[in-house]
């Protein structure tokens, strides 16, 4: 039927992998017959290594703000578990649960549930699932179209190749400045009394905003 065909199309669209990554793909020039075997293993190992690095940065306070939040949350949980009488609450919770839900009156609840509530609940679940399936398919389709449009705009503005910059610190080595390092303006000015704002130059980032015609965030703010 038509409903079944629409359901299968929407479900296939949801089950498909939605690739919203607009970074340039690295293509292998030489054909590798084992690429289907080792590529998933590499992806799993990459995620494991990145997760271990991220946890290590938090444990060694390389990411100070995240380490502070984790420590603060730990102290708050320790205080809550220290003050709240969990043994008393759990004992009475399980007593009320057993006395209320494991008595002979549950037979009447089963009869009423199977006769009236369960059929209506099944119809509501089926209707809500179909609505969710359609909305999810529309959302994923919109994401794919938006990612393709954004990739073309970025290639037009910044060049052919696009690299994905990680938002979290997953680097293997830390870049620690040496004690002897220093910084100086690019254009050495003889007049040191001039304001630094006159010599500084703002570098516009690559963050693009907008739906219909994406523009740079700096241009949108102006």
Strand order of the largest sheet: 1-2
Structural class: mainly alpha
Number of strands: 2
Which bin fits the share of residues in helices?
Answer: 55-70%
Distance between the termini: 54 Å
What's the rounded overall pLDDT mean? 76
What's the number of structural domains?
1
Strand content bin: under 5%
Series of H and E elements: HHHHHHEEH
User: Radius of gyration, rounded?
Assistant: 29 Å
Characterize the biggest β-sheet: 2 strands, antiparallel
Shape: extended
Note poorly predicted spans.
none
DSSP summary: helix tally: 7
Textual characterization of the structure:
The mean pLDDT is 76. A hairpin with a 5-residue loop joins strand 1 and strand 2. The protein is extended and about 85 Å long. Helix 1 packs across helix 5. It is mostly helical. It contains seven helices and two strands; from the N terminus they run ααααααββα. The protein has a two-stranded antiparallel ribbon. Helices cover 62% and strands 2% of the residues.
Quick recap of the structure?
By secondary structure, this protein is mostly helical.
List the helices and strands and how they pair.
Layout: H1 2-15, H2 35-59, H3 64-83, H4 86-101, H5 106-158, H6 196-199, E1 208-209, E2 215-216, H7 217-221
Antiparallel strand pairs: 1-2
């Amino acid at each position: 039927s038509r409903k079944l065909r629409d359901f299968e199309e929407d479900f296939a669209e949801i089950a498909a992998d939605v690739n919203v990554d607009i970074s340039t793909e690295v293509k292998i020039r030489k054909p590798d017959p084992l690429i289907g075997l080792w590529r998933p293993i590499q992806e799993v190992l990459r995620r494991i290594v990145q997760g271990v690095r991220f946890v290590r940065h938090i444990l060694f306070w390389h990411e100070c703000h995240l380490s502070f939040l984790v420590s603060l949350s730990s102290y708050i949980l320790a205080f809550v578990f220290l003050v709240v009488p969990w043994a008393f609450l759990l004992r009475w919770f399980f007593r009320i649960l057993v006395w209320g839900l494991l008595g002979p009156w549950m037979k009447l609840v089963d009869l009423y549930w199977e006769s009236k509530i369960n059929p209506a609940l099944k119809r509501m679940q089926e209707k809500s699932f179909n609505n969710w399936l359609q909305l999810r398919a529309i959302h994923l389709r919109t994401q794919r179209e938006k990612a393709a449009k954004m990739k073309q705009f970025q290639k037009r503005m910044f060049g052919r190749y696009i690299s994905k910059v990680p938002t979290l610190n997953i680097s293997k080595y830390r870049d620690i400045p040496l004690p002897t390092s220093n910084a100086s303006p690019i254009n050495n000015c003889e007049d040191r009394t001039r304001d630094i704002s006159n010599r500084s130059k703002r570098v516009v980032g690559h963050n693009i905003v907008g739906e219909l015609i994406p523009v740079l965030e700096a241009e949108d703010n102006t």
